[in-house]
DNA sequence: CGACTTTTTGAGTATACACTCCATTTTGGA
DNA sequence: TCCAAAATGGAGTGTATACTCAAAAAGTCG
C-alpha cells in the first residue's frame, strides 16, 4: 500500500490507466503491460502498491458500480424521472466509467465476485426504482413495481450496452422514450 | 476441411464442445485445450479441420445469431407478440445458443468482425419489430416505430443478459411484461 | 545531515495460450 | 486388396501473460 506522497500519485496514475483501458476495450485490454505503460510505471512499482492486477481492476469496477447511483441521501424522495435522468447523466458525463460498468459486468466470468457485487447492487437499484414508481402511483402493488422496475432497468442497461457497441447510438433519446412508456 | 465420415463427426464434436463452453463461460472458457478435451480430440485433429480457433468460434456464434430470428419467411405478416414469443422460445428452448448469443456479443472485443455482424443483425431485427408495430398501429410514424423497437429489443436483450448472470431470474415473465407495456 | 522506510527499476520466472509438425493409423474408392 | 488421401496423437514452438526479486534511488522525519 502507498505510504509516501509519490506512492499515492503512482497509485492514482495506475487507477486512471486501468479505468481508461477497461473503458476502451474491457478486461482483455487491461493487461499489466498496458496498464504499466500507460501509467508510465514498471511492473515492480505496480506490485509495490497493489497485491494483484485483480485488485486494481476491482477497485475501478467498484467505483463504476458506486457511480451509477445518484446520491443515496435522496433515496426515498426522488421521482422516477430523477432516477432515469441520473443514469443518463452518468452515461453522458462519465462515459468511461459507464463503459467500465457495463464491460466489467459482462466481461468478467460468471460466479465471479465482481458479478455477485454487480447483482447485489442491481437488486438495490431495482428496489429504489420500484419505490419511486409506487410513490408516483404508476403501479398498484409492490410486486408489480418490482417487475416494472426490472423491465425498465433491463431496457436502460440494454440500451447503454447498445451504445457501448455503437457509439453513434443516441442513448439519451431512447432512455427518455423508455421511461415515458412507463409513465402511462 | 473434413472430407471423410470420421472427420465430419469430429467436426460436430468440436462445434458442440465449443458451443457448450461459450455458453458456460464465454470466450474465456473456450480455450483450445478445453475444447479439445471436451470433444475428446487432440490439437492436431482440431487443426486438421479448422484453420484456427477463431473459425470454430465464429461458426458457433453465427449459428446463435441466426437462431435468434424466427423463420424469415414469415417476415411481413407476424405480430409483435409472435416476435417476442419467438425470442422467449429461443431463450427457453435453446438456452445454450441464447447464452452464446449474448456472451459473444459482449465478450468479443469491440470493432471485431463478430461485433459488426451482431450489430448488422440487430438493425435488421429492429426493422422487423418496427414493421410489426406499424402494422398493428401501435405507433404513428416509421421513426417512432424504430425508436420503440430499439427500446423493446434493448429491454429484451437486457433482461436476457440479466438471466445469464442469474439463472433464477424469470426471463419469460419480464419479457411478457415488457411487450405488454408497448401495447398501449 | 543521517537513518530508516518506501519506491523504482528492469531483468527474470512460471504458466497458459494458440498453433505446428510429422510419424503413424485409418479411411474409402478403384 | 491396395494405395493415396485424410485423420490422429502428442510432443514441441513461440509468445503473452501475471507476477517476483534484489539492488539502487528517492522520500520522510528526527
Low-confidence parts of chain A: none
Biggest interface reads: A-B, 37 and 37 residues
Biggest sheet statistics of chain A = none
- State the secondary-structure class of chain A: mainly alpha
Number of helices of chain A: 9
Order of helices and strands of chain A: HHHHHHHHH
Oligomer: homodimer
Distance linking N and C termini of chain A: 52 Å
User: What is the helical fraction of chain A, as a range of percent?
Assistant: over 70%
The overall number of domains of chain A is 2
Question: Which value, in Å, is the CA radius of gyration of chain A?
Answer: 18 Å
What overall form of chain A do the CA principal axes indicate?
elongated
Number of strands of chain A: 0
Strand content of chain A: under 5%
What average pLDDT do the residues of chain A reach?
93
Characterise the protein shown here:
2 copies of one chain form a homodimer. Chain A is 77% helix and 0% strand. The first copy, chain A, has 184 residues and is an all-alpha fold. Chain A folds into 2 domains: 5-58, Arc Repressor Mutant, subunit A, CATH 1.10.10; 61-182. The model of chain A has no long low-confidence stretch (mean pLDDT 93). The interface between A and B is large, with 37 and 37 residues. The first copy, chain A, binds a DNA duplex (30 and 30 nucleotides) through helix 1 and helix 3.
